[in-house]
Amino acid sequence: MSTAVRVRGLRKEYPGHVAVAGIDLDIRQGEVFALLGPNGAGKTTTVEILEGHRRRTSGEAAVLGEDPGTAGRAWRARLGVVLQTATDAAELTVAETVRHFAKYYPHPRNPEEVIDQVGLTAKAGARVKSLSGGQRRRVDVALGIVGRPELLFLDEPTTGFDPEARRQFWTLIDGLAHAGTTILLTTHYLDEVEALADRLAVLARGGVVAEGTPATLAGRERAEALVQWHDERGTHQEHTAFPTKLVTQLSGGGRELAGLTVTRPSLEDVYLDLIGEKP
Length: 279
Ligand SMILES: Nc1ncnc2c1ncn2[C@@H]1O[C@H](COP(=O)(O)OP(=O)(O)OP(=O)(O)O)[C@@H](O)[C@H]1O
Description:
6-stranded mixed beta sheet, binds adenosine-5'-triphosphate, 3-stranded antiparallel beta sheet, alpha/beta
């Protein structure tokens, strides 16, 4: 599988401050890759460099085979971008806005279909100005995908969405990924990462502190499990690296254990541990 994004030693310094301290990343074509990290970790800076919106101080970057610092309009048309800050609310309607943006691209998607996909058909004739925050965010997403991007950047795309809108959005992203779109997602929602991402990297203090799949990040699948059950003497709990063995012993080969649960660290536990904020 070929590489959509390749980054080596990427560094960004602001006066008196290192925002990105030399990171490496490889994002394969067709995968959904999530970038996680606390506020100020360097996610937006990294993404903006890859989008060609910000200059790097040093290091190498190749996005769809080109250097984002020098690539031109044809390259830009292959990208879809949903920035963290919402598009300025204009006097135009939703349909007018999406149709207008579609004209910037050589092979745009059908604007009406895109509006439908982001769940805004009922609001197609409404002025963007009159929409709620979550609905405007959906317009942003529509504008990000109308150009049929090969690589889609989503910077905190579901902030302000209600739970139903988030689910719809996940379905939409899943569909795009299945159709072969590479997606780079930054988010603070760990359930979003578990639902969507093939792989993720955790950024903290400008560096990558862990990289892996949501299920195996930082040895999560090998971490000790907590086994809980109760009997006439009360509730019991035990930490073990071998929960299957423990449960087999406890159940004496088939006796039912009341209230049995086996839990491993959640992605959130692992994440908080990695960024050094575990309570
Ligand atoms: N234009 C700028 N000038 C100076 N410092 C900046 C500039 N832009 C960002 N920074 C600093 O660089 C660091 C990384 O910021 P960045 O926006 O990349 O973080 P982030 O991981 O996206 O955070 P968030 O989760 O809050 O969006 C922060 O300390 C920020 O204050």
